[in-house]
């Protein structure tokens, strides 16, 4: 069994060593330009075209992250990047769900307890108690009900919040009101005080966080974007903040990363920025899942996390 590995900025050696420990029967190597030797599996993040093109004998391609939008975009721009018929497998959790819970919960509580406003009052040296939000008036809507969206929803339910989810197809999550399809999206948005975006990045979801969506929310709503920068129409958010339709936003992802120094988000008093760290790939957990999936394929079973290329997730 031959496995090739490529990542543009990971330290490769710990991955090669860890995979060899988990798959001692395999020959594992870092892919370098010009390497056209046989490979049964490819592990990659934003792979160059020549790494995968024409490798029809591959049994599986593993994306080294939960999102596969980057590699699917490469395929759209240069067809053949993904060999036809070879399954693409994403990382489903590998510790990302807990990280996403921690991030989402911390910023939900920040807005619910109005700590963001107290921080602004501190900067103005104002001692001013604020009327607290009430949970019955603080409905949280989660866009996306996949592994991460479901995990965040369940954690927020544990804290007593009213939580609703919207997804392309119907999902059942205990304690969560589910909405599905375009016909139910307006109903999902109406009455939501805070929106968390965890949608997959596909051509259909690009620009979904826009003026129209913001207008459906309760005035003074909050936005937390943890998915992709391509989901957000930045000028629409700035306008909604100026108008007060959006009270504040927390953004972990951006259309351009790193965020340019001249971008207005940096200095906006109601925008909180983090540098795409809501949930990072944890090598040990990721390698465990990849090794388990390779062993499943070798045994003739279907691996977990196979991407539907038509849907994009």
TrEMBL record:
Domain D-isomer specific 2-hydroxyacid dehydrogenase NAD-binding: 106-278
A GO cellular-component term linked to this record: cytoplasm
Classification via InterPro entries: D-isomer_DH_NAD-bd, GhrA_Enterobacterales, NAD(P)-bd_dom_sf
Listed SUPFAM superfamilies: NAD(P)-binding Rossmann-fold domains
Catalyzed chemical reaction(s): (R)-glycerate + NAD(+) = 3-hydroxypyruvate + NADH + H(+); (R)-glycerate + NADP(+) = 3-hydroxypyruvate + NADPH + H(+); glycolate + NADP(+) = glyoxylate + NADPH + H(+)
Single GO molecular function: glyoxylate reductase (NADPH) activity
HAMAP family in UniProt: 2_Hacid_dh_C_GhrA
Family stated for the protein in its record: Belongs to the D-isomer specific 2-hydroxyacid dehydrogenase family. GhrA subfamily.
Protein known as: Glyoxylate/hydroxypyruvate reductase A
Organism encoding this protein: Serratia odorifera DSM 4582
Lineage: Bacteria, Pseudomonadati, Pseudomonadota, Gammaproteobacteria, Enterobacterales
Primary gene name: ghrA
